[in-house]
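Customer escalation, tier 2.

The customer says the design service returned an amino acid string that "doesn't look like it belongs to this structure." They asked us to rerun it and document both sides in this ticket. The original structure tokens are below, unchanged.
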């Protein structure tokens, strides 16, 4: 006769991130030590909605005791969205009940968190759910500005790659345009660019307008290139967050990707299908050609290389805490005492202690979706990053001698240069709205 106190399911959603296996390991070990059985759900919500026996795998300590330092996910992952499928959340409930699973640990980003909330609500609280925040984009609203797990490893690996490309740039005397993942926020691009000492980094938060054009982005990069030339260098590297595509005007984005662009189950255009680096490089080279100049440049997309890297010690340590905390909360006798936590929430660290944020507190009341944490242009983190970039600023335009040299590099008159680039010749203090 089974002496189990119950069964806990674990699933992974969204894109991979370093540290997933460490969460699975920590959660499984803690649950078993507390007397629970653990079921790994293969292929995330897709597997849970499917319900086939092969989608459910019993996990034991021997299965997970040495996976904490492995990249990827032993349970795989998917971007399936049960709330977007007719009867999807009901099927999740039925299949969880059929497997005797009374509590669910989900590992993923904002969309996976939204799915966990939907499933918990569909069960009326009968299935408890705890979400472990995972994304290399670092865009979930965690307290005390803590990173989402996987971000630090992705930044570490990405920094090494960018530093190699910077050496290639110097050696070959040309520019590199590196596109970094980050659907809405520029955290990863900024973190990599700042750590590697990239010439310039561009993130979507820097553009105050709701919609921008590719020319707006090009002006920032051109300004950096001309200033670099005035300083005696023809080489350089720019890190550009892919999230700038989210700000492109609808007609321009559709032109880039086509009306039949593939979208994920949450309705997002698959940014990975958009050749932003190629489009940006060609746009830059076209603008240089129009001035009678040539630009030697290479475009590189940086993202998939980072997602399944083995976690660095920070993320292993961090995810062990989160996996342990998720199970501790689910199995606590006081679970549900807080009405806001009736449907579960997101586990996080605050002041070195574990806490769970109710799903409702994570939602944007206007959109109904999980809130997104953007780069704070008023933060010291951003201001320092800007200070070490090569970018046009207001003083460059106001200095007659400097303006003349920049205009000469651009093959323009000083007046034409000032008119063209005044909109991007701002310093971090102006973007942040604080004193320099």
């Amino acid at each position: 006769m089974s002496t189990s106190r119950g069964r806990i399911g674990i699933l992974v959603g969204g894109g991979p991130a370093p540290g997933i296996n460490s969460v699975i390991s920590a959660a499984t070990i803690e649950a078993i030590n507390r007397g629970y059985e653990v079921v790994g759900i293969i292929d995330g919500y897709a597997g849970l909605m499917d319900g086939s026996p092969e989608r459910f795998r019993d996990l034991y300590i021997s299965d997970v005791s040495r996976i904490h330092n492995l990249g990827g996910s032993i349970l795989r992952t998917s971007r399936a969205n049960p709330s977007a499928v007719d009867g999807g959340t009901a099927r999740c409930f039925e299949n969880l009940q059929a497997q005797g699973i009374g509590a669910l640990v989900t590992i993923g980003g904002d969309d996976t968190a939204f799915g966990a909330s939907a499933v918990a609500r569909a069960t009326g609280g009968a299935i408890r759910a705890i979400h472990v925040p995972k994304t290399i984009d670092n865009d979930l609203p965690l307290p005390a500005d803590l990173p989402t797990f996987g971000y630090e490893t992705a930044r570490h690996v990405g920094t090494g790659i960018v530093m190699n490309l910077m050496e290639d740039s110097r050696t070959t005397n040309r520019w590199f345009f590196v596109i970094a993942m980050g659907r809405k926020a520029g955290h990863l691009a900024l973190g990599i660019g700042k750590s590697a000492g990239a010439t310039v980094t561009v993130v979507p938060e820097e553009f105050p307008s709701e919609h921008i054009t590719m020319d707006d982005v090009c002006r920032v990069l051109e300004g950096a290139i001309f200033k670099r030339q005035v300083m005696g260098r023809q080489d350089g590297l720019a890190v550009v967050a892919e999230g700038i595509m989210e700000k492109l005007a609808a007609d321009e984005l559709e032109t880039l990707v086509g009306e039949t662009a593939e979208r994920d189950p949450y309705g997002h255009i698959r940014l990975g299908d958009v050749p932003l680096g190629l489009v940006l490089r060609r746009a830059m080279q076209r603008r240089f050609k129009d001035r009678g100049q040539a630009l030697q440049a290479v475009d590189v997309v940086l993202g998939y290389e980072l997602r399944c890297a083995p976690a660095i010690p920070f993320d292993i340590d961090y995810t062990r805490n989160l996996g342990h905390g998720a199970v501790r909360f689910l199995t606590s006798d006081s679970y549900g005492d807080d009405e806001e936590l009736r449907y579960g929430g997101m586990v996080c660290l605050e002041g070195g202690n574990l806490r769970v944020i109710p799903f409702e507190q994570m939602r944007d009341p206007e959109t109904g979706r999980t809130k997104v944490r953007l780069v704070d242009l008023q933060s010291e983190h951003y201001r320092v990053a800007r200070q070490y970039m090569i970018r046009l600023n207001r003083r460059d335009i106001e200095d007659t001698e400097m303006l003349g040299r920049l205009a000469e590099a651009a093959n323009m008159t000083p007046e034409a240069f000032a008119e063209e680039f005044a909109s991007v010749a701002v310093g971090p203090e102006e973007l942040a709205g604080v004193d320099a």
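Tier 2 assessment: The sequence is consistent with the input. The radius of gyration is 24 Å. The mean pLDDT is 90. Sent an explanation to the customer and offered a walkthrough call.
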